[in-house]
């Protein structure tokens, strides 16, 4: 290789063509166009939402600690061990036993329950839908006061103070 000429290798060892078409020389700087932490964590929440069997509303959630590590994920669905075919997925029925809201565990609650560490105080929650009142109370109770919600530009942070989201 001549000095000053970049080799273009797919493994990026000596030089690489970036997604945006720019080229870098090995060791001269990071690539451009990579995801921000916020976009990365929101993408995880959106991916979790794709696990929901709910035909009307698919919600996902990711809990992230101060070191940018995902410590919990969840999506809306029936409790563990309950078949997705045994209970109703309808909403708005006057009979509470025929209404999904009686049975569904929300994504935020599932993420808190599924967390990989004992304490989530000070963590950030990324969710694809604004938490309901019951989830907001649980989120406050566990000390997670920073929430980013999909659809608010750019992921407006909702600071929970005194039980108000």
From TrEMBL:
Chain segments annotated as coiled-coil in the UniProt record: none
Residues spanning the membrane: none
GO terms of biological process kind: nucleotide biosynthetic process
Segments forming domain CMP/dCMP-type deaminase: 36-165
GO CC terms: cytoplasm
Keywords: Hydrolase, Metal-binding, Nucleotide biosynthesis, Zinc
Leading EC class: hydrolase
Enzyme Commission identifier(s): 3.5.4.12
Catalytic activity line of the entry: dCMP + H2O + H(+) = dUMP + NH4(+)
General function of this protein: Supplies the nucleotide substrate for thymidylate synthetase.
Family named by the database record: Belongs to the cytidine and deoxycytidylate deaminase family.
UniProt protein name: Probable deoxycytidylate deaminase
